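Usage

Read records sequentially. Each one opens with the input sequence:
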Amino acid sequence: MKKITIAYIVVIQMLYSLPALGQLILPVNKACDEQFINDMVSLKTIKPSNYYYYHYIASGGCQGVELSEDRFDRINKHFAKLGNLDAKWALGEGYKELVKNARLGSIAAKGKIVQANTVQETPHFSRDKDLDALQLSDEIKQRYVSEILELAEKGDIRALRTALVYYLWTPLSLSGSDTDAIKATNRLKNAQRLVKRFGDQYGWLKMLYKIWLLEAKDVAWCTQSFEGKQYTSGFEKDLETFSRPLLCSSVFDKKLYEQIRLMDEVSRIRDFKEQLVSLDANFTGNMQARLKKLKEWDKAANHIALLAYFNVPLAKEMLAFMLTSLPYEPNQNLAGFYWIDLDHEPSPLMRLISSVNGKNGYNINKKITEQVIPEILASEKHFGMSYLYQGRLDDYYKFTLKNVLPKGDLPTLYSFYLMFKFEDNTRAWAMIKALEQYDTNMANQLAADFTVSGLHQPDRLAVEKVMAEIKPYLPERSKAHYSQIDWRRDIKPYLLLQLSLRIEQGISNNQRIE
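and closes with the structure output:
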């Protein structure tokens, strides 16, 4: 009988290690079950996966249970003996078997590997030296992402924190493509959905999201008053009363906040303008010089974040530009994308910044004069591209040929080449010949691409006919350039002009009221 019992236990333990049963959900809504709370002292549990519940309870996550640091060591040692990998890692053990355990079906190991995708310097539960030392390949890092994210959507306590960190802190490229913009939009939505669905049950989610918002320069949390508030758990109380002042200290200046709070609207706009006048985006020089400039820019961003909190015009646009366009480390593109808002009567500058980052901000059914910034060529260029998104190629060609190319935008010729490459190779070759007048290297690259694509040079007279058609719109050589929005040339002058106009308008309105 004893042998049968032992054999039965061995079989059960083997079954629990298999991937099929490893997929069983550990629901976060059971984190504060009374059976776990009552066992915190004696630790009689023998189920390794209960580690996540006990650890959260020890963090003060459940009502009536205070945070207790001395419990963690006991919990880690107890569950490490039971074979829980997270407990072993907390004790500095078990990293060498990480990939093997993931392959055998361990959710903990898979989650740890997913964390390797996040930015290296994320300070909150993403990367650690032992994980970096494994030098995991990109293929391995991506292997379990979808599985962990799916578990998080189902409310699995093992995956929630990892999923939120993945959504918010994995580096993101914003090259201007709509694919990148869709990724950014989805990651923000997914992160916010996790916090909304499970944040009340699992305080770590709210904490991590608040930390990320501070990195994105959203200071709303720091302005709140919690006097007389009833807290639902010790975790929440410690977060609001102890952690909040520490976390906010790097972003939020209480004295400056009070000064801006007491200002009228015109004074706030004037303060914003004063911040921009001396702001420089030149990050050249040695590492020390660049770091000094970055700190200055970051300090200015913290100031502008306060103005954005008080809804000062164009402050949110400035934050979006700063965070997506400048050399922040670690990657801050998603934080900049957070400020892009096309749902509430976007300004022409918001439309432009959104479009530059891949999210079309223009509506071809509305007046162009209400959307485009004439002083910034990229604004007209991206308005023209909105025709492409509607599949109106002829309208895109006509608008861009007449309004963008004459002002010197050479990438227009490249775009035309791609558009006509297989549809009208005569016109495509004409774009190459036109580009030769400005950039022979680029023209030669396109000519090589033309040949490699199996196309043959068209009739010379047909090409000359197209050249004659576009000649009136070709820019002077001195005006030709590869347009990108630039702080010194485009954004800064526009902002200073718009703020000056708003100051004058505000003063005029005040005088009429008086």
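Summary fields computed downstream for this record:
- The two ends are 97 Å apart (CA to CA).
- The chain has 29 helices and no strands.
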